[in-house]
Amino acid sequence: MMPPRPPHRRRALFMVNPGARQGTASLGAVRDLLSAELDLTDVRWPGAAAISDTIRARAGEADLVILGGGDGTLNAAASGLFDTQLPLGVLPLGTANDFARTLAIPTDLAAAADVVLAGAPRPIDLGEVNGHPFLNVASIGFSADLARALTQEAKRRFGVLGYGIVAARLLMQSRLFTAFIEHDGQVEHVRTLQVSVGNGRHYGGGMTVEATATADDGRLDFYSLEVDHWWRLLALLPSLRRGTQGTWDDVRTFRTTQVVVRTSRPRPVNTDGELVTYTPAHFRIRPAAILVHAPPAPAFSSFPSPHLQPEGSA
């Protein structure tokens, strides 16, 4: 009599970005934990520019992808995950790990591995700007300037504190710029320090785009900081951390599915910490675009935001 056939073991592509802040950490114990239930295929890190192509090329070998890295690593993989629909397991090895925080994925690596093994993945939205996907937040203005100034060495050496050190220096030099914001059948002319468009909740190593935002609500959360003095922004910081900046008179907020931002001259757009395109910037939401192993969504994820606006018509 033939012995019973062993149950199917899921196959996982296992990739780690050695350039992430904790990318050189020992992952032996985590690999052992994952290997107890998964067949792991180690894939040498191909570089951010090639990671999505690698996922597409090797999709037939796997049932899921496990990535070790930070928000930039995950952003680089987003298009490959969308095209293949392979579920994603996250090992947070970056500086801020904002996507992991939005989805309540533990920063403890063994606990994060347990999440990958625990059950079915969740559908998660993707934001998109000019064809480039983003997981957390895309920004124009101050945050884009910060992304350009914050070197990889500063991230590795100072961690999240590095954001604050560089931001304080840039803040004193920042100036308002003119933007035209098209959404939901209207055009708004503003003078702003920064506009941000969020898919998830957290970004920038501790900021919150909107207190009730989730990465699976099918909406983009927009805000514009129309402050005229740098000290006013300092007063706003506690609200920016909590995601309650929409209660301030000089912060414009709304929720939508599409928005276009035009500026008088091209300005860079920062997505998940990387500069990927320039204005004019066309943002849209891709609902339930990728699958991610994460804890169950919090109960309020289906509640409407007080800033909810009519859905975009385009």
From TrEMBL:
Q: Which residues belong to any copy of the DAGKc domain?
A: 7-133
Instruction: Output the GO biological process annotations, alphabetical, semicolon-separated.
Output: phospholipid biosynthetic process
| MF-aspect GO terms | ATP binding; kinase activity
Q: Which PROSITE patterns match?
A: DAGK
Per the record's keyword annotation, is ATP-binding included, yes or no?
Answer: yes
Q: Origin, by domain of life? A: Bacteria
Q: Which UniProt keywords apply?
A: ATP-binding, Kinase, Nucleotide-binding, Transferase
The UniProt entry, under Pfam families, shows: DAGK_cat, YegS_C
Matching InterPro entries, A to Z? ATP-NAD_kinase_N, Diacylglycerol/lipid_kinase, Diacylglycerol_kinase_cat_dom, Lipid_Phosphate_FormReg, NAD/diacylglycerol_kinase_sf, YegS/DAGK_C
Q: Does the keyword ATP-binding apply?
A: yes
Database matches in NCBIfam families: PRK13057.1 (NF009604), YegS/Rv2252/BmrU family lipid kinase (TIGR00147)
Q: What is this protein called?
A: Lipid kinase
Give the taxonomic lineage as stored in the record: Bacteria, Pseudomonadati, Pseudomonadota, Alphaproteobacteria, Hyphomicrobiales
